[in-house]
Amino acid sequence: MNTPLLSPRDILRRVFGYEAFRGPQQAIIEHVVAGGDALVLMPTGGGKSLCYQVPAIARQDAGQGTAIVVSPLIALMHDQVGALHEAGVEAAFLNSSLTGEEAAQVEKRLLRGELTLLYAAPERVTTPRFLAQIDALAERGQLALFAIDEAHCVSQWGHDFRPEYRALTVLHERYPGVPRIALTATADALTRADIVERLQLEQAQQFVSSFDRPNIRYTIVEKKDALSQLLRFIEREHAGEAGIVYCQSRKRVEDVAQSLSEAGIQALPYHAGLDSAIRQQNQNRFLREEGLVMVATIAFGMGIDKPDVRFVAHLDMPKNIEGYYQETGRAGRDGAAADAWMAYGLQDVVNQRRMIDESPAGEGFKQVMRGKLDALLALAEATDCRRVRLLGYFGEVYGASPPAAGPPQVGHDPLGGQRGHEVPSVGATCGNCDNCLHPPAVQDGSELARKFLSCIYRVQQASGISFGAGHMMDILRGKQTEKVAQYGHEQLSTFGIAKEAGESELRAVLRQLIAIGAVAVDGGMFNTLRLTDGSRAVLKGEVKVQLRESVATPMAKRSRRAGALAPAAQALGVDDQVRYINLKTWRADVAREHNLPAYVIFHDATLAEIARRRPQSLEDLQGISGIGAKKLEAYGADVLRVVADGA
Ligand code: ADP
Ligand code: ZN
After folding, report:
1. C-beta of residue 120 within 8 angstroms of C-beta of residue 68
2. Ligand 1: residues whose CB is within 6 Å?
């Protein structure tokens, strides 16, 4: 085997312009450069791309040929390959967006050995035509490695299941000597075990990073009037900044995008029902323009590598913690302060339960999905540190070193023992979530919970049918409604037994009861409530119900907002800010010319550092993070001119 001429560290500096590897990057890269297989679990923004890009460059440099990158993100391949070009790396992509002629061109370059990286969609990789081409490369020893990005797509437990991923085992079977690296930001034990099994990665070394995202602040508020809550949140905390708002349905996406626009916030819709050209256009605008809010279903976001998304808001609750974490993880990739904000209410609980109950899936699958939903409900209802719970769900103890990369356990508790109810480090605080910043007053809601359960029981007993939450709460509060009269429910012993309780308190109790599985919501038109096996423990006082006292939590006031200036630039003096803005204008022109997002040219932090250092020569520019050799050569002189002009 030829030894690479460039060490990984040289490549990091020269090609990408970065000083040091982050976290486990170096270990992963060395392992893969040496020909090992790897499974990389790293949170979004952790720096996964370099884990295969650097080995691809090193192995190409050592005469070992081309790296094939399997990625499901057709709409983003253009920008990813563009970013590599900017860094001076030969790369191309093959997917359905190319014409036959364009694809043939790429194939020619591939066979001539001109490419360091080839990005390809999974359905393309497993076609006989493509396999014949990689056969040809393999025969000449010119297959450097396979990188399987977004590897959780292979698992039905992941939230982006792509059946085409299942066929990727062919790579291992056909080219056993070629190293493979699979990467994902989804870390729950079940999905991880599934990835290993499905992709036959039993022999691969696992690299598990800490999943903590310290710069993200988690906030979960009780949903009252979700839209005005959202508006207030954006206006107070993120005016003029880029963000993503997740909604459950297409209709809601449209409505919310429109309402935000009417309120003067630049917002675009994104969902699978939109024409694909419009979808692509909205995505491009979000990536290329500044300060846009994308209102979207979960169809949006995988692989979006925009570094300066300052907030991710959920107007509706996601299905499970994996989804929540993945989606919120899209905020703050650049490491600067960012918010994950969610409004959550009883209706979310009911909707999510119903979607599971009514899905055509088998009972075993539904059971797993219910367990996952329960863990998210527990997180939403928590009165202690959200971060501790989130990380606990992924098997990580907050503040301790990341979980050992042992073999994943297959085949026992389908949730890998990671129920959100069990919090490993009780009492730990992160200082950067709502519960840590404004510890909520907690009251014992057990008595009220028992009253609620008794009421459900009495109603069922007296009427032979069950009712929904609204009617149940009317009975508890002793309200004389038409329905109460119609069914004679004022006769019940539970009529008016919770007169003193407010409606929001009763809702909170019910959410808790549903969250802990003591009440079930039956689907159909009326969402009727019924007792479960879990009710008994609450009735007997064996399980306590803790309630967050409904105090209006003050919005965290932050001084970090200086207009819509990126966090990177807020520490700059006035002169430097002028230079920074000039540099941004220049960057916008370049990006438009190259049809790429601005951050692919230079990150905000790089421009801010240039503005601060006021470089006079190319040497002065060298060593600024984010300026590699190719960018120095391509843009160095222009940057110096912009800096000098602004003086
Ligand atoms: P992921 O794919 O894990 O979500 P990326 O690969 O997109 O993350 O990396 C996130 C950001 O961090 C990118 O902007 C990338 O350029 C930057 N980055 C990654 N590794 C390093 C490093 N060693 N030094 C500086 N910046 C890095
Ligand atoms: Zn906290």
Report:
1. yes
2. 18, 21-22, 25, 42, 44-50, 305, 307, 333
